[in-house]
Design goal:
mainly alpha; rod-shaped; membrane; Marvel; transmembrane helix
């Protein structure tokens, strides 16, 4: 048993030595450096001050150009964002006024549609579940009526009404 383990260790030792010797002898140095990767032994980098100055100035000017381009892009973005915001506020305020005028009819219309869909819901499945579904339709109409239309639209309508009163007072003062 001792001889067998000695033979195995001798065999592995000789095979490792032979493999490393063959690898170093058979492969050329350039291939060996690429294969092992760059290291301080294979590649010696000398400091070149002219190349360093040129690369620093190039990176500095690229960074300045990037900052100016970013500033230009952000200024255009904010201008267009402001114009689009004005446009959408104008459109939405028009729709808010319409919703405020028809808020009672819209509430009853949603309630009517929920009652209209109720028989089709009760035809299938559990009636308790469909009763909850029906309550959900009422809750949606209730939510739209109280929170969305009553506060947001009333704010827009009241602001436009106060502006109308202001311009009317200015007009009547002449």
């Amino acid at each position: 048993m001792l001889k067998r383990s000695a033979k195995i260790s001798e065999f592995t030792h000789h095979s490792f030595v032979n493999f490393s010797m063959n690898r170093q002898i058979s492969l050329p140095i350039k291939t060996l450096s690429v294969w092992r990767g760059p290291s301080a032994v294979n590649f010696i980098v000398e400091f070149n001050p002219i190349l360093f100055l040129f690369s620093f100035l190039l990176s500095f000017f690229v960074f300045i150009f990037f900052l100016s381009f970013l500033r230009l892009f952000l200024s255009f973005f904010f201008v267009f964002f402001f114009l689009f915001r004005l446009f959408f506020l104008f459109i939405f305020s028009f729709f808010f006024r319409l919703f405020f005028l028809f808020r009672f009819s819209l509430f009853f219309l949603l309630s009517f549609f929920s009652l209209l869909y109720a028989p089709f819901f009760f035809l299938y499945g559990d009636p308790i579940f469909h009763y909850l579904l029906l309550c959900r339709f009422y809750f949606i109409s209730f939510f739209v009526y109280f929170f969305f239309l009553n506060y947001v639209c009333f704010f827009h309508f009241a602001m436009s009404f106060y502006l109308f009163k202001f311009f009317l007072a200015v007009f009547l003062s002449f």
